[in-house]
Design brief:
The protein has 203 residues and is mainly β. It is built from no helices and 20 strands.
Length: 203
Amino acid sequence: PIVLTGGADNNYELTLVNGELTIADVAAFDVTFSVTYKGAPDADATIAINGLTLTTSATGEATIKLKAGSYPYTVTKTGREEVSGNVDVADANQNVSIELVDPLPIYTITYTTDGNGTINGTATQSVKKGLDGAEVTAAPSLGYQFLKWSDDVTTATRKEINVQGDLSFTALFTLKSYTLTYSAGTNGTLSGEAVQTVAHGTD
């Protein structure tokens, strides 16, 4: 026999035996999305799930039949913040409630240096309110070492969490210094400073 699967929502099994085609239902369950905005049903929202696109009705609802499994989905509408999630289908119909909100503000995080190093990572980031930025690292130029950030954070690598506004940070570096130590053998003496601290590139 030749077995095919199909139907608009892929919930049928088609079997062809000796020229006879049999169409049988596959166990599937209704998943109903209920989309609201500011407490009211939100019509014409788009739901992408299982390779299909649904549109909510005047009641803010859209229904799809799904076999048992786990399905990621995305809900979008112009003038609303996008919502993504996952629905797990087991052995029963279910409802998924989605509350859409206004688009979140977008803030800018800016990382700069004092000129004696570079920023590894994205130095200027656009981040939605409440989300996290991407990790960056302050890398010193030759002869310098990382000192701190302008907000007194002392780790060269950082990441902003739960961003609530525009942010700006400068990485500060300092010249490396070295210790020169001189000693005389048993048959001589030293004249001058026996222990000296010298900055990188100086005498």
